[in-house]
Amino acid sequence: MNPSSFYLIVILIAGLVLWRRTRAMYRPIKGSGIRILLPILFLLLPSVPLISNPKVHATVLEWVCALILGILLSIPLIRTTNYELRSDQHIYAVKNKSFIISFLIVLIIRFLLRDYLKWVDAETKAALFIIVALGYILPWRIISFIKFRQLYKNQIQDNENINFR
């Protein structure tokens, strides 16, 4: 895959993520919020063979650094992802332009790192970038799910209190 097609694919995926995220701000989150965790599953399934590839040659320090970088990149995403209970008694993602900016900054950092790490072979680079992605998607989605569930439980308790009165 040549670099221009790679960048095109990444830009299309990023555009899809941003489009879905901005659409989610106008639609209620249905159910118990399990769908918030689905991207973790979508990333874990293809990442296992990529990480366990015998052609991947990375030191423990490189794996740890990739994971720490991912966790650091998750912080702005976590801080800008919130949920609110609106007057129709449904839970929505809070409208937040800071999230879009944070997401784009994370994407730019990944592009810059990809260009900087030209000395690393393709399989190792792919595995390390999957670790970076897991490092920011896992904490971001898990904490987002926890934030949603707290609001969801409060909504259920409030509804029960209203029914008992």
From TrEMBL:
User: Which top-rank group of organisms is this from?
Assistant: Bacteria
Give UniProt keywords alphabetically.
Membrane, Transmembrane, Transmembrane helix
Q: Which InterPro entries match?
A: CcdC, DUF1453
**Pfam families, A to Z:** DUF1453
Sequence intervals crossing the membrane: 6-22, 34-52, 58-78, 98-114, 126-143
PANTHER family referenced in this protein's UniProt entry, alphabetically: PROTEIN CCDC
Protein known as: Cobalamin biosynthesis protein CbiX
Q: Which organism is it from?
A: Niallia nealsonii
- Lineage of the native species? Bacteria, Bacillati, Bacillota, Bacilli, Bacillales
